Amino acid sequence: MTDELHGETEQFWEGHYRGQGRVWSGRANPVLVDVAGSLRPRTALDLGCGEGGDAVWLAQQGWRVTAVDVSATALDRAATLAAEAGVRIDFQQHDLARTFPEGAFDLVSAQYLHSPVEFPRDRVLRMAARAVASSGLLLIVGHASAAPWSWNHKPHTRFPTPEEVLAALDLSPWQWRTERLGTPERLGTGPNGESATVTDNVVAVRRLVRRWPD
Ligand SMILES: C[S@@+](CC[C@H](N)C(=O)[O-])C[C@H]1O[C@@H](n2cnc3c(N)ncnc32)[C@H](O)[C@@H]1O
After folding, report:
1. How far is the CA of 210 from the centre of ligand 1 (A)?
2. What spacing in Å lies between the alpha carbon of 136 and ligand 1's midpoint?
3. What pTM did the predictor assign?
């Protein structure tokens, strides 16, 4: 696992986290709370877990969580958050462009899994779909617009629409049902307390229960 980590991706994200104190709020992302809050907790995979706000929240709801990031510093902070919250999480370090956690999960969550360094996002999200257990859910939340304080805030940045994300997953309609496809707005808060309305792209697809022929 760790020996496969190399290259710009790890350098960029390690630099991002090491260069400052805690980056994110530690709170779970609102769409995840909205979607997973009504699900029966089973096994969950958090891809690009960062400092662990979502993973800890899921574990507190009773999910058995595996959480993955490329940055060792982010994972250390996430493990500290989990210890403070008194929950156990299986943290794994992967560059998802190279290696992917083993197993099948009832919930696979990718929250703002964007990267300014080269990242085969569509391919990784297709692997995420393959990791969804029978009748499980894949939830992808991404930016549709970047907050003014974000490193993503460049005039020409274009984020894929939910429809484009869904199309790139290339899922069979016989095996998957789309449960959410939309662009909700939320009020985001920046590192200095500033706020702005930002738009998210949300895709939630459920793998249908496998039916064997009689
Ligand atoms: C924008 S942050 C989102 C963090 C978290 N999901 C959240 O919503 O707060 C993207 C995260 O994905 C991770 N990441 C980016 N590229 C990755 C890769 N190739 N493999 C694993 N993690 C990656 C980064 O280290 C970072 O923690």
Report:
1. 31
2. 22
3. 0.93
Residue nearest to atom 14 of ligand 1 (CA): 48
3-class secondary structure, 196:
strand
Q: How far is the CA of 11 from the centre of ligand 1 (A)?
A: 13
Residue 43, pLDDT > 50, answer yes
Report, at the CATH architecture level, how domain 2-207 is classified. 3-Layer(aba) Sandwich (3.40)
User: What is the per-residue pLDDT across 178-214, written as a single tens digit (0 to 9) for each?
Assistant: 999 999 999 888 777 888 999 999 999 999 986 555 5
**Tens digits of residue pLDDT in 15-32:** 999 988 777 777 899 999
Q: Where are the domains of the chain?
A: 2-207
- Could you give the residue ranges of the DSSP H alpha helices within the chain? 8-18, 30-36, 53-60, 72-85, 121-130, 162-169
Distance CA 26, CA 103 (A): 26
Ligand 1, pocket residues at CB < 6 Å: 9, 13, 24, 29, 48-50, 53, 69-71, 74, 94-97, 111-115, 119
Q: How many A from CA of 212 to the centre of ligand 1?
A: 37
